[in-house]
From TrEMBL:
InterPro entries in UniProt: ATP-grasp, ATP_grasp_subdomain_1
Database matches in PANTHER family: BETA-CITRYLGLUTAMATE SYNTHASE B-RELATED, RIBOSOMAL PROTEIN S6 MODIFICATION PROTEIN
Protein name: ATP-grasp domain-containing protein
Keyword ATP-binding (UniProt): yes
Keyword ATP-binding attached: yes
Top-level taxon: Bacteria
Keywords attached to this entry: ATP-binding, Nucleotide-binding
Gene Ontology CC: cytoplasm
Amino acid sequence: MPETRQESSRRVGLLVGREQTFPEPFLHVLNHRGADNGVTAELARLGGPGEHDEPDYAVLIDRISHEVPYYRAHLKSAVLMGAAVINDPFWWEADEKFFECTLARKLGVAVPRSVVLPNKEYIADIDHELSLRNLQFPLDWERIISYVGLPAVLKPNTGGGWKDVSVVHSLEELWAAYDKTGQKTMILQEYIKWDDYLRCICIGREHVWPLRYDPSAPFERRYVANDPPQGPLRQRAIADALTLTQALGYDMNTVEFAIRDGTLYAIDFLNPAPDFDDFSIKQEAFRWVLDRMSDLALRYALRQLEPPWRRDHRWWKYVDSGAQSSG
């Protein structure tokens, strides 16, 4: 029998990729906490909706649409039809690291000196004489290096997980790394030789769990759970992480800070599908994530909270106006 809108009005759907340790405990906690209010949670099943179909879920938690484009198309429609989606699929698709660096500067959060670079390669239909006539060529590499300094970090303008990141120590090394970037848009950043490094897990734009983190260590040893930041360092990290996360509008994110001479430099804060695996963030932080994420999803499912970014999208006032006119 087809499901009714009432039956799906308090259902939470989780979209995940290869992660193994977060989904089952999260769904268990949320189903337990939501039982008295009729809230249920499951791995979402999405496929082939019509443009007029009501969403099957009141809340969708997205941890994989950056790698599966179909999901994002579905999630945008679900937002329009009234579902709460964590994170905002419209903004997530538009967000980029160079923009975030510019934003951080405007907000008073320190970031490394950064330059965005034109793509090394383009799709076949690009005419290099006509389609690229607005590009400065050749680039003034000496000016770029004099601003950013050496060593420097070359990394993609989108994406995460420390993929395709290179540390270069000379102009020749930069050219060699840049020549391998293909069609990716890259940014070049000042290398911060850090004294300390933190990764802050941010949930609901109000909760932050700072952890010491060593990006140079093997993956399984990067999080340092037994030496949490304390005192003023912890408070500055929380304050700056909240400033960035609230401005970007992410309900789940991580913000990384490299600390040099007492200054916190925001290194990477485009992480809207943050690492939630228990073997990496460790048990105490993992339990905190389960609690905060289930609380957030429950509040959205019960309509105790509306995604604050929803009304930021221009089309909402026309949708509301059309609904009132037809009523």
